[in-house]
Amino acid sequence: MSTDDTCKDLSVRLWDLHTGNCRLTLRGHVAAPSLLRLAKSGGVLMSTDDTCKDLSVRLWDLHTGKLIAVYTPPERITSCEVLLGGSVLALALENYKEVLCVKLHGPAVESVQNGKDSEFDDRDYGDETLEGRTFEIKGPENS
């Protein structure tokens, strides 16, 4: 993937590492995207500009090169993550104390659904026998 210095047309380009050819060119930002996040499944990319020249967050289908969604947060993004194949974005925003989670709605997109299915884990977390118990945690200096 490349942006900014190599793509003067404000696009994101995906390169085939075997051939060296440009596989996809993703266009739509009004400023060069400087923050990219790839979904764990690899089929969805989030792009945004963390310098505030373009506040929009764009979600791309990397199988087709099509734009899935655009979201414009109220403040600059300081950190972000793509979750569940792109069906949820976790955004840390400047001047916000809490993480903003944005859920994708609308017609199903195959790459998002496939990623969501592969990342979703409904198994219980932790030891059920410890549920509701309180523990006193001591550091090495308090042992």
UniProtKB/TrEMBL annotation:
Renumbered residue ranges of the record's region Disordered: 113-143
InterPro entries, per database record: Quinoprotein_ADH-like_sf, WD40/YVTN_repeat-like_dom_sf
UniProt xrefs under SUPFAM superfamilies: Quinoprotein alcohol dehydrogenase-like (SSF50998)
Compositional bias ranges of the Basic and acidic residues kind: 130-143
UniProt feature, compositional bias: Acidic residues: 119-129
Protein name: Uncharacterized protein
The organism of origin for this protein: Helicoverpa armigera (Cotton bollworm)
